[in-house]
TrEMBL record:
InterPro entries: ComplexI_NDUFA9_subunit (IPR051207), DUF2867 (IPR021295), NAD(P)-bd_dom (IPR016040), NAD(P)-bd_dom_sf (IPR036291). This is NAD-dependent epimerase/dehydratase. One of its GO terms (molecular function) is protein-containing complex binding. Residues 1-39 are annotated as: Disordered. It holds the Pfam family DUF2867. Residues 9-35 have a biased composition (Low complexity). It comes from Cellulomonas fimi (strain ATCC 484 / DSM 20113 / JCM 1341 / CCUG 24087 / LMG 16345 / NBRC 15513 / NCIMB 8980 / NCTC 7547 / NRS-133). Residues 52-190 form the NAD(P)-binding domain.
């Protein structure tokens, strides 16, 4: 039996039908405003403000709200990060930092319902204080702006236990919002099952890569997971709750399982052999998170709070949410079906958002300086150009597909070792991959890079999120050759139609940054030079293949 779950058979017809499912609003009749005759929200429809729109849940919630008939105001610290999303033109994008009282208060003016989808998962030791300050600021702004309802997605937690720092912080944020004076809905969920969610990816890779494993004893704790589709349905439905409802709700799917059960049922759904799972008591959450970060794409800083949360049994104590948001006619999505749907989306490259959609906590976010005489200090540059015997379109297709499964076109062992070293010091490494194997959007993660700018057909600029003593960028450009017109020149070898320009830039931080640059500079010819040559050859090969097919 194959151990490749992506190519395993799914339930006949089920997953295919749900790849483009109806909006969740279709199962919420009477609760949502509904769209106008043109299929768009009406001009007088309630206005929903959504924070965290570049994250996993927020990026999926926006189109669901639009389909439900809500006007949407997308709040982001940098609205340009929303470019390329299929819903960008249908929303009002507003620049606002949720921790800045004046900015967020102005952004919430005229808003009927505000979604608070912000948390500092895996962002270091100060995340609790940061989450507390941001929640307090947002609560004050919502109250002063006259927001009618706040909706928050928090974590499911057991009563009467000492909580992990992550769960304790999310619980505190919910309490702050409930005390804001604005009617608030707090939805408490455990593991969210969906293509691209951090919890799902962690379970998926552990199960796929380890036919036998030694695990902590918490694998036998009970968990009530929930499908991302049902989470979105509750989020949309919560907007219509009456003003006198201000409380928290446990939300979960129909199945209560142990983590061991979840891995075995994932294996069965994915067409894998049954896994050998042995629980031992010596693996602490810290050791477990280090192990998870080495086996899965989830970096240690993110894996640790996820693992710490699994130490608790998280099962719903009530299902009161059904009083205001009734269960769908076909029932909530069960575990097996949620896995099948998620795997089908992975297989068909239909993953709309991923856990890596949000920028890595603590990662550099400074944009590339545009001034050649940058006053920010030293800026080291490694610049290369070469003609390519392929059309600009063929070259761009290869450029845009770089990273992930396609790799980096040079010295694979060196890239793998660099990625492993980055993970060992808490960085994302290479296992984060890509959201889509062919197409990139601004703010997409590409291994240990982040897309800072993409001009289709011309420019791809990547900002490093690996742990380095400074700021680093990799810029790939497709330019048109300035030679004679191709139609008048029969010698493609002398005058190829495209030029591949490549720049690596590094702004060092302190003496260590300068030492780092000069220590790796001797290898640039092998790494970046090889990358440029091999990527160009791949474009030329693809061009020849297309020409042969056209001439056949």
């Amino acid at each position: 039996m194959s151990d490749d779950p992506v190519h395993s058979p799914a339930a006949p017809g089920a997953a295919e039908a749900d790849l483009a499912p109806e909006p969740v609003a279709h199962t919420l009749p009477g609760l949502v405003p509904g769209v106008g005759p043109d299929g768009r929200p009406r001009a007088d429809a309630p206005l929903a403000a959504v924070t965290g729109v570049t994250g996993y849940v927020g990026g999926r919630l926006v189109p669901e709200l639009l389909a439900a008939g809500y006007r949407v105001r997308a709040l982001a610290r940098s609205p340009k990060r929303l470019r390329g999303r299929p819903w960008t033109r249908d929303v009002e994008a507003v620049e606002a930092d949720a921790s800045d009282l004046e900015q967020i208060r102005a952004a919430l003016q005229g808003v009927d319902v505000a979604y608070y989808l912000i948390h500092s998962l895996g962002s270091g030791r100060t995340f609790e204080a940061r989450d507390r300050r941001t929640a307090l600021t947002f609560a004050q702004a919502a109250r002063e702006a006259g927001v009618r309802r706040v909706v928050y997605l928090g974590g499911l937690y057991p009563q009467g236990e000492e909580l992990s720092p992550h769960l304790a912080s999310r619980t505190e944020v919910g309490e702050i919002l409930l005390a804001s004076g604005v009617p608030t809905t707090v939805l408490r969920a455990a593991v969210i099952l969906g293509s691209g969610s951090a919890s799902f990816e962690m379970m998926r890779y552990l199960t796929e890569r380890l036919p036998a494993m030694t695990v902590p004893r918490w694998v036998d704790n009970r968990i009530q997971p929930i499908a991302i589709r049902d989470v979105l349905r509750y989020l949309v439905g919560a907007a219509a709750m009456p003003p006198d409802v201000s409380r928290g709700f446990d939300i979960g799917g129909p199945d209560v399982l142990t983590y061991r059960d979840m891995m075995q049922r994932y294996a069965a759904a994915a067409g894998l052999r049954r896994r050998v799972v042995v629980g031992v008591g010596v693996l602490t959450p810290r050791l477990s998170s280090l192990w998870v970060s080495l086996v899965t794409p989830v970096p240690g800083g993110l894996a640790r709070p996820l693992v710490e949360s699994l130490v608790h049994e998280v099962v719903c104590d009530e299902h009161d949410i059904a009083r205001w948001v009734p269960d769908p006619p076909e029932g909530l999505v069960g575990f097996d079906r949620a896995v099948l749907l998620a795997l089908r989306r992975v297989h068909d490259a239909a993953v709309t958002t991923r856990w890596s959609s949000a920028a890595a906590p603590g990662a550099p976010s400074d944009p590339l300086p545009s001034d050649p005489d940058w006053a920010g200090g030293s800026l080291y540059v490694d610049e290369r150009r070469m003609p390519v015997d392929a059309s600009p379109a063929s070259l761009w297709r290869v450029v845009e597909a770089v990273g992930g499964e396609h790799g980096w076109y040079s010295w694979p062992l060196a890239w793998r070792l660099r990625g492993l070293g980055d993970r060992l010091v808490g960085g994302p490494g290479l296992r984060r991959g890509r959201r889509d194997p062919q197409r990139l959007l601004v703010d997409d993660a590409v291994d240990f890079w982040r897309v800072e700018e993409v001009d289709p057909g011309r420019l791809l600029r990547l900002r490093a999120e690996m742990r380095v003593p400074g700021l680093a960028w990799l810029e790939l450009r497709v330019e048109t050759d300035d030679g004679p017109d191709e139609a008048a020149d029969t010698s493609r070898r002398l005058h190829p139609p495209a030029v591949f320009a490549q720049r690596a830039l590094f702004h060092p931080r302190g003496l260590l940054g300068h030492v780092y640059w000069w220590s790796v500079a001797p290898f640039h010819g092998v790494v970046f030079g090889g990358m440029q040559r091999n990527l160009a050859r791949a474009a030329e090969s693809a061009e020849r293949a297309r020409t042969d097919r056209r001439d056949a």
